[in-house]
Design a protein that fits this description.
There is one protein chain. The protein is α/β, with parallel strands linked by helices. About 40% of the residues lie in helices and about 20% in strands. Strands 4-3-5-2-1-6-8-9-7 form a nine-stranded mixed sheet, with helices on both faces. Bound molecules: uridine-5'-diphosphate (UDP). Uridine-5'-diphosphate binds next to helix 1, helix 3, helix 4 and helix 6.
Length: about 240
Amino acid sequence: MAEGYKYHRVLLKLSGEALMGDAGYGIDPKVVDSLAGQIAEVVNDGVQLAVVVGGGNIFRGLAGSASGMDRAQADYIGMLATCMNALALQDGFQRAGVESRVMSAIEMKQVAETYIRGRAIRHLEKGRVTIFAAGTGSPYCTTDTTAALRALEINAECLMKATKVDGIYDSDPVTNSDAVRFDTISYKDILANDLHVMDSTATGYCMDNGMPMIVFDLMVPGNIKAALQGKNVGTTVVSSVG
Ligand code: UDP
């Protein structure tokens, strides 16, 4: 049990864009190293951490299909993009001295284990960061949906959604300086107010199964640990408020 932490087993969702830093494309090793350092600290304290990584820094299925590709085929390319990010993250974890495993929803034995739920839980119990790659393995899904699904499967106490913004606002804080941040909000209110935090499938999975979520700014060093300790670093999403 990790002393001083509110959450002991969590799933961290990293968008592909988070890995590209200020570059417009690809993977910035400096970002990966900084992330790995933050994650090393909490894992060494005993937190069990699983990661779902996106692929938007490399390829998005929707963008492919908008330019004329078959949607499912484009989504498979997107899923393979998440595998590249997962391997880059694993490399960063290794350099930070954190043991990790990449588990892919699409079989690719030479580079990753195939996802098996029980084995993933075993890795977590042994203190290995478990990186889930290739999304759900099915097209027409996102890695937000993957994150919600895997968080439920591994009995995570919380889904941590790392973004570039420090929480959920009633309107876009980039374009509206009067936007107000929520400390806490319910999934119902997210849907009712059409707040685009995750896609509706991911929101539905979390809402219907009571999976809490913390939305926080990944770019602030120390935020992962603070969020895990229950400090107010973003917005907490719960099944119902009040
Ligand atoms: N994808 C998919 N099925 C999944 C997860 C992802 O088909 O279960 C594809 C989809 O094309 C998506 C791409 O992989 O656009 C990259 O994932 P996502 O857009 O969620 O990445 P992020 O926005 O988090 O970087």
